[in-house]
Amino acid sequence: MQYALLVQGSPYSYQASHSALRFAQAVVRRGHSLTAVFFYHDGVYNAARLAAPPQDEPHLYDAWAQLHREHDTELLVCIAAALRRGLMDERESSRHGKAGHSLEPPFILTGLGQLIEASTAYDRLISFSP
Amino acid sequence: MTGLSGGDLLVILRHAPHGSSWLKEGLDTALVAAAFGQRVSLLFMGDGVMALLPGQGSGPLGQKGTQPTLQMLEMYDIDSLWVEHQALLERGLNDMSLSVDATRIEKDAISRLLAEHTQILNF
């Protein structure tokens, strides 16, 4: 079965991201395919490339990236929700005249249309919200 | 309540305006889905019913008001609007006129409304 996830919780503030990640790992372990994870609302903070949690805590950012590396899962971030929260890739950063960027591949800035696409194209879309 | 209509996507709005961005980001999702050709319904539940009170302009902190977005729903052919009757009663709002034409729905009918939609998103 083809799964997509919607993640709306800020990492480390709420359980939502942790639960989403564990669900994602279970999906692929069971032989299903996890096609895309869409980050919206405060979930976009999962894509912050500078995240540096203490070493004895789960590293959510690295775990998402690993999911992409090993299973080709697309990591899609709503651009409107991301920009207003200070998350932007190099292209948006220079467009807005900023000195650095806070988001990079495998996380991809995209529109809400991709979430709608995910909700229709795949067998299941599962939401994780605080 | 009659004529429970189905659709492709039911967007459930459970937060009041201004205090968080849930309502705004939920409505944005509904509009984008409609623009992508989905048949979209909205269900205002719990504190979300407060979005339907008239006069939702921009807040004192400079947040955008949701009223203009609600007025745009018709333009996007989103006309299946539901409001949880019990939530209006609990908040003493049942006698207020609502800013858009939403049909009151009883608690026990909500499960049927959910079942009539292919996809549900909660905000």
Strand order of the largest sheet of chain B: 4-3-2-1-5
* Lateral strand order in the biggest sheet of chain A: 4-3-2-1-5
Characterize the biggest β-sheet of chain A.
5 strands, parallel
CATH topology heading of chain A: Hypothetical Protein Ychn, Chain: A
Head-to-tail CA distance between termini of chain B:
24 Å
**In this structure, how is the largest beta sheet of chain B organized?**
5 strands, parallel
Number of discrete domains of chain B: 1
CATH architecture of chain B: 3-Layer(aba) Sandwich
Count of individual helical segments of chain B: 4
- Gyration radius from CA atoms of chain B, angstroms: 13 Å
Identify the quaternary structure here.
Answer: heterodimer
Any idea what the CATH superfamily of chain B is called? Answer: DsrEFH-like
Overall SS class of chain B: alpha/beta
List keywords for this structure.
heterodimer, A: 130 residues, alpha/beta, Hypothetical Protein Ychn, Chain: A, five-stranded parallel β-sheet, 5 helices, 5 strands, globular, B: 123 residues, 4 helices
How does this model look, in words?
The complex is a heterodimer of chains A (130) and B (123). Chain A has one domain: DsrEFH-like (Hypothetical Protein Ychn, Chain: A), CATH 3.40.1260. With 130 residues, chain A is α/β, with parallel strands linked by helices. The mean pLDDT of chain A is 97. Chain A is globular, with a radius of gyration of 14 Å. Chain A has a 5-stranded parallel beta sheet with strand order 4-3-2-1-5, sandwiched between helices. In chain A, 35% of the residues lie in helices and 21% in strands. Chain B has 123 residues and is of the alpha/beta class. Chain B has a single domain, classed as Hypothetical Protein Ychn, Chain: A. Helix content of chain B is 28%, strand content 21%. Chain B has 4 helices and 5 strands; from the N terminus they run βαβαβαβαβ. In chain B, strands 4-3-2-1-5 form a 5-stranded parallel beta sheet. The two termini of chain B are 24 Å apart. Chains A and B meet through helix 5 of A and helix 1 and strand 5 of B.
